[in-house]
Structure formats: C-alpha cells, structure tokens
Amino acid sequence: MGRKAGLIRINPKKFAPAGKPCSKELVSFLNCLALNHNNDEKCVQQRNAMYACVEAQKTQAKKNPYKTLNYHLQRLSKGIK
C-alpha cells in the first residue's frame, strides 16, 4: 500500500489532497470560458476567485515541514536517519 524509494516508504494517498487545492475555482473558470467562447471579460468573477485561491496557496505557510516528502529525501541523501 505504498511505494518504496530506497529506504523510505511513500504513501501517495497521503500527499493527494494537497495536490488539488484550487480545482473547484479552476473548473468554474474554465467552464465559464467554454460557455463564453474564450472571452475572459465575461468571466471576471471566476477568474478573481481562482487568482485569490492561488495567492492564498502561495502565502499559506506549511504547518509541519518535517512531514513533507522533500524533507525526508534531503535527510536520506545526506545520510542522516
């Protein structure tokens, strides 16, 4: 129920929810574009909602960097257990 990368075991389900944080806003913006023949002037509300979500994701600080995959891979590459 996971993949092995060297000495560590990776559970892909653990990292899945963080991969799609703004999917609802993106889908609503793309649907609006499709309905309006790619005229983004008519989709200002959806575009602003998507941009606000993306900006919020950029500025959101990670709660615990020790649980990230990159942290463990860096420790593994340095030989620290």
TrEMBL record:
The lineage's top-level taxon is Eukaryota
Q: Name one GO cellular component term.
A: mitochondrion
Instruction: Drop me one GO molecular function for this one.
Output: structural constituent of ribosome
Mind listing the GO biological process terms from this record? mitochondrial translation
UniProt-listed InterPro entries: CX9C (IPR031731), Cys_alpha_HP_mot_SF (IPR009069), Ribosomal_mS37_fun (IPR017264)
Indicate the segments forming the IMS import disulfide relay-system CHCH-CHCH-like Cx9C domain, all copies. 20-56
Protein name in the entry: IMS import disulfide relay-system CHCH-CHCH-like Cx9C domain-containing protein
